[in-house]
Amino acid sequence: MFERAYAVSAIGEFKKRILDNMLRLQSETAMNELCVPVGMFLVLDRASGGNTIGDEVIRRFSLLDLESRNIIDFFFLGWGRSKSSSLTFDLKAFQSCRDALHKAGVSGFGGYADLLLFDAWLRHERVSLDFENALHIDLAESVANKRIVSAGSFLEGLLQAAEEIRTDGSLNSRVVIRISDKLGLATAKRSILHFVLEKWGKIIGANSLVELATRRVGPVVDLAGL
User: Fold this and answer.
1) Are 38 and 129 within 8 A, CB to CB?
2) Domain count of the chain?
3) What are the two backbone dihedrals, phi and then psi, of residue 50, each rounded to the nearest 5 degrees?
4) 154 touches 129 (CB < 8 A)
5) How would residue 136 be classed by pLDDT, with cut points 50, 70 and 90?
């Protein structure tokens, strides 16, 4: 069983997962240039100052792993698995991951539970992360201000959008898409994030569309230099 949600306790582990998946997709699809969507969660546990929104996101880990439909890989930074396979939080590991992102110019954390959604690109045998055109959602702040009903329903809309992309024949005819049961989705020379947000926005409704506006949260980052 291939994971779609990863608990990663170090930025090096995140880099290795991304690189491995990109190279395997390249080998399977024979595409020299490709793009995949990546989700990154910054979530505190209760003992470290987190809140109910973070609890809800962590409870969604297994569902995201099961239902992301081979479209999006999700990374939970600072989290690991215990011997019983339950998720455990390491504040020092989390802060180390945040420091690595900050040094790369990627900023912004609401303090409880945030989601970053962005494109990873393989070009000229190099992998880069596009934080110039990224989605950054402070889930706790968005729920508190009633722009979204709940973190759970918001993420469920993302899973539904992923499923619609899988089954949208018209999209596949307009965009070069490869969907692998093992490795996920890749597009050739075009960002997939636009299509994810378009589907997602139709599902969650007009009141939440403002949350789906991409913006600059950092530069385009070379994966090897992160």
Assistant:
1) yes
2) 1
3) -75, 180
4) no
5) very high
Strands 34-43 and 113-123: antiparallel
Q: Tell me the backbone φ, ψ of residue 212, rounded to 5 degrees.
A: -100, 20
Task: Compute the mean pLDDT over every residue in the chain, rounded to the nearest whole number.
Answer: 84
Query: What is the value of pTM for the model shown?
Result: 0.88
The rounded distance, in Å, linking the Cα atoms of 223 and 126 is 8
Note the helical H segments in the chain: 11-29, 52-59, 61-67, 91-103, 139-144, 151-167, 169-174, 193-204
Residue 107 predicted with pLDDT over 80: yes
Contact, 38 vs 75, CB < 8 A?
yes
On whether the CB atoms of residues 59 and 151 are closer than 8 A, the answer is: no
Token match 């990546």: residue?
Answer: 38
The parent domain of residue 43 ranges over 5-225
Residue 15 φ then ψ, to 5°: -60, -45
